[in-house]
Specification:
alpha+beta; six-stranded antiparallel β-barrel; elongated; about 270 residues
Length: about 270
């Protein structure tokens, strides 16, 4: 209790002292004494400069948050600009991709226009070329009206048949698959035969069940036949070339020309009628 009273007494003394000094300066100022005026001016200068020295760090310290906030804002804005630039590049890439896809589709539609009322457009989403199988997967299925056996066409040429159907995808068995067997007609006489993949080489094809002594000719066209009740007739399969006949064995060799490469195909047509 005594300590508290002592502190108050000291505080009161300080206040009285400061008040007395202030009154003295007021008196001296009013009495216009030169000596004391000079002393007052010196003290005022000291107080002014001392006040500046004391308050300047405080003012600057108070300004620091604004600089920090400004730097943080600039950093955030730069990050946002960087993100926007990345998004812009991505959108430009997507736009270029969509433009290319649109051009491919337009070109394909023009090439396949004779079938536009009978077939649907499908995108190739997977290609498989193994020792025992040649196939591709497309993005159309039972939900689009596809069925097993539907012919698949590229550049007005048959490239295979649907062999497996899901709701929104299907697998196409290509002509060079060793299990592919397509009923066809050949040449002007429309001679019946079976066009099949060659187990010995996926780049070769066999024309089987030709009539005895039947000879192929260069330029003979091969078309699909509807004899199996599944395929649409009249779709071009390929053209015969490089025919050679061995008189001693009575056998002939040949090549088949196509107007497409199934492994460089992005879109196909699938007959659904």
């Amino acid at each position: 209790m005594n300590a508290k009273n002592g502190w108050f007494e000291q505080s009161n003394l300080r206040v009285i002292l400061l008040f007395s000094i202030a009154c003295s300066f007021i008196y001296l100022d009013s009495s216009n004494q030169k000596y004391f005026k000079s002393t007052k001016a010196v003290i005022n200068d000291v107080i002014a400069h001392t006040s500046f020295i004391i308050t300047w760090p405080i003012k600057e310290a108070l300004n620091i948050p604004s600089y920090v906030i400004h730097i943080a804002t600039l950093k955030k804005e730069n990050e946002q600009i960087s993100i926007l630039q990345e998004e812009k590049q991505k959108l430009m890439a997507d736009n270029n991709f969509l433009r290319q896809e649109s051009q491919k589709i337009q070109k394909f539609i023009q090439e396949e226009k004779i079938y536009k009322d009978e077939a649907i457009l499908a995108k190739v989403i997977l290609k498989a070329n193994t020792i025992t199988a040649s196939s591709m997967t497309i993005n159309k299925g039972a939900g689009d009206g596809l069925k097993i056996g539907n012919p698949v066409v590229k550049n007005n040429n048959l490239i295979g048949q649907i062999e497996e159907v899901n709701y929104k995808s299907s697998r196409v068995k290509l002509l060079n698959d060793i299990n592919s067997n397509i009923p066809v007609v050949i040449g002007e006489l429309l001679t019946q035969a079976i066009f099949s993949g060659d187990p010995s080489s996926k780049s070769k094809f066999n024309i089987q069940y030709l009539p005895k002594n039947f000879r192929l000719n260069n330029g003979d066209s091969i078309y699909t036949s509807d004899i199996d009740g599944i395929l649409k007739k009249g779709i071009l399969v390929g053209t015969v070339s490089d025919v050679k006949y061995d008189e001693s064995t009575k056998k002939q060799t040949y090549s088949i020309n196509f107007n497409y490469n199934p492994y460089q195909t992005d879109y196909v047509s699938v007959f659904i009628n």
